[in-house]
Design goal:
alpha+beta; seven-stranded mixed beta sheet; five-stranded antiparallel beta sheet; 19 strands; disordered N terminus
């Protein structure tokens, strides 16, 4: 018992030490909630999903090539299709990092058939011909089952890639009803997978020489064509990995590139923004104690209204430059303002901005400019998707850009992500303007 006071003292010291540690952890976690960082830049609440477990590299890439008869026309020669598939299989990072790669053909109806090609890109390239494509059930394809399989494989450090013409295989009767039912299944499959994890879907539209038979969905039969036709690459995987390995700069180098779209789960992140000191119309001063506040705001003396710009850094977001510079993707809330212009300024130095901006956004109004101003970047479906879709492919000759039912397919995928995101916006920027 003579050691009791000594033990009691040590116990008290331990309790105090743990209490201090807990206090430090609490302080660190709270410090991340500030809207102004140490450099004085303002950070907008953006909504990009953060990974629960950090994954630095792709350990495995699985490529599925649809090989129903509707795809044979793309392999009639060394086409853009052949070049793109070869590039994906031999992606520089995959080679340098010795990424495990598996290649499969995929076709069939309800019981989908996968035929393993192997893991050698040379063997894959040697199969990109009619003889190589003739395996499994080339008379049928099931787009929903292809998505289901590819999505299921996209887990943790594995990405899956599906190359397809993205056309549903429908019966001839009541096709619009069938199409809607297929899309409902697509939406459900995506929701199921999104509930399990942070899967991003990258959709790439490309064009290629096509010499072979096209099988019209609208009236059956087949039509021999020799022309340009679109095809699609769907890439599934953790957002962090797709953002790193499939950057827009890489995609822009793919042969026959037409358009891209990214669908991803959204959550809180930060987008730096800062008002530009130069006024376009009227005048104002920046309150450097709180740069969300613009004071002494005055409209143009010639009655042209008021307009100003603010710099933003979109470099941490994965969308294309065309998405950021499209004014229709923005919305001004609770004010008479409108977004008038978005410029890419990544190669310019804006001396008054305490970070390296990627874009300069200009907003303006012809009415009283004072009050609250909130600008949001919407999570919008790119216009090219609806422009690509059609529901009548009877006259396919000369049609080089449209795909039967494509807008229905993509709207189904988009609705799945919107459901998971609770219709969240990508990011928002707030200002208070006073006299």
């Amino acid at each position: 018992m003579k050691h009791a006071p000594f033990l009691l003292i040590n116990l008290i010291r331990l309790i105090l030490l743990f209490a201090a540690g807990g206090s430090i952890l609490f302080s660190c976690s709270n410090s991340e909630n500030h809207s102004l960082n140490e450099s004085g830049m303002l950070e907008s609440t953006s909504k990009i999903e953060e990974k629960e477990a950090h994954v630095e590299k792709i350990e495995k890439a699985i490529i599925y090539l649809e090989n129903s008869q509707s795809m044979f026309g793309y392999i009639s020669d060394y086409t853009n299709y052949v070049d793109v598939v070869s590039e994906l299989a031999n992606k520089s990072e995959f080679v340098a990092e010795k990424t495990l790669r598996d290649f499969y053909f995929i076709n069939g109806a309800n019981n989908i058939i996968t035929t393993k090609i192997g893991n050698d890109p040379v063997a894959l390239k040697n199969k990109l011909n009619e003889v190589g494509f003739t395996c499994g059930d080339i008379t049928k394809s099931n787009l929903n089952e292809m998505f289901h399989l590819a999505l299921d494989k996209a887990k943790k450090d594995t990405v899956s890639i599906l190359v397809t013409d993205a056309i549903y295989d429908l019966e001839r009767d009541d096709q619009l009803k069938q199409l809607k039912l297929e899309v409902d299944q697509t939406k459900s499959k995506f929701i199921d997978e999104l509930e399990k994890g942070n899967v991003q879907t990258l959709v790439i539209k490309l064009s290629s020489k096509f010499r072979g038979y096209y099988f019209p969905v609208a009236d059956g039969g087949k039509t021999l064509i020799d022309q340009i036709r679109p095809f699609y690459v769907f890439i599934f995987g953790e957002s962090e990995l797709l953002n790193k390995y499939f950057k827009n700069e890489y995609i822009e180098g793919l042969s026959g590139l037409q358009n891209t779209a990214r669908f991803l789960k959204l959550s809180d992140s930060q987008v730096p923004y800062h008002p530009s000191g130069s006024t376009i119309l009227g005048s104002f001063k920046i309150d450097y104690h709180d740069i969300t506040k613009l004071k002494e705001v005055k409209s143009d003396r010639n009655g042209e209204g008021f307009s100003f710009s603010f710099a933003v850094d979109f470099s941490k977001l994965p969308f294309s430059d065309s998405y950021y510079t499209d004014t229709t993707n923005y919305q001004c809330l609770n004010s008479s303002f409108e977004v008038r212009e978005i410029k890419n300024v990544a190669d310019k130095k804006l001396h008054e901005i305490p970070f390296k901006p990627t874009h300069l956004i200009t907003v303006g109004t012809r009415k009283n400019p004072t009050g609250s101003l909130e600008i949001i970047l919407n999570n919008s479906l790119p216009p090219w998707i609806n422009e690509t879709g059609e529901t009548n492919d009877k006259v396919i000759k000369g049609d080089t850009s449209k795909t039967y039912g494509f807008e229905f397919l993509m709207n189904g995928i988009n609705e799945a992500y919107q459901f998971e995101n609770n219709n969240s916006v990508v990011t928002r920027f707030s200002f208070q303007l006073t006299n």
